[in-house]
Amino acid sequence: MELAGAVLTLAGSVFLFLGALGLLRMPDIYNRMQAGTKATTLGSILFLTGLALYQWGSGSVQKTAVLILFIVFTNPLSSHTLARASHAVGIPLTGRSAIDRLADSGKNT
Q1: Residue 107 DSSP one-character state
Q2: Residue 49 · residue 28 · CB < 8 Å
Q3: Where are the domains of the chain?
Q4: Could you tell me the CA-to-CA distances from 77 to 38, 58, 62, 82 in Å, in that order?
Q5: Alpha-carbon distance 54 to 4, whole Å?
Q6: Contact 39, 18 (CB under 8 A)
Q7: CB 8: neighbour CB atoms within 10 A?
Q8: Considering the entire predicted model, what is its pTM?
Q9: What does the pLDDT look like over 56-100, one tens digit per residue?
Q10: Which of 23, 41, 64, 92 could form a disulfide with 52, with the two C-beta atoms 3.0–4.6 Å apart?
Q11: Within 10 Å of residue 70's Cβ, how many Cβ atoms?
């Protein structure tokens, strides 16, 4: 169990690093939110699962499961809310973005 926990913790750390790298490399706020949210959600899930496997007998599995559920529900929701608010106040997309479906639908708020 300790080896599987260590491998999952390392994999989670890699995804968290890639999420941070995505925040630096992406051209606008919308792409940064997408890269950061997807990578950090998966990275946090893998990292916490690895910690739970590493400390299997300590009774922390239930607490870790609650944390994972909290992350799964709140991370994408908060990212979506921030993206909608950014669009509503007029933060522009990068010139490389092909389509703005929210502006095309007429629902700016």
Answers
A1: -
A2: no
A3: 2-105
A4: 12, 31, 23, 9
A5: 7
A6: yes
A7: 20
A8: 0.81
A9: 777 778 889 999 999 999 999 999 999 889 888 988 888 777 677
A10: 64
A11: 11
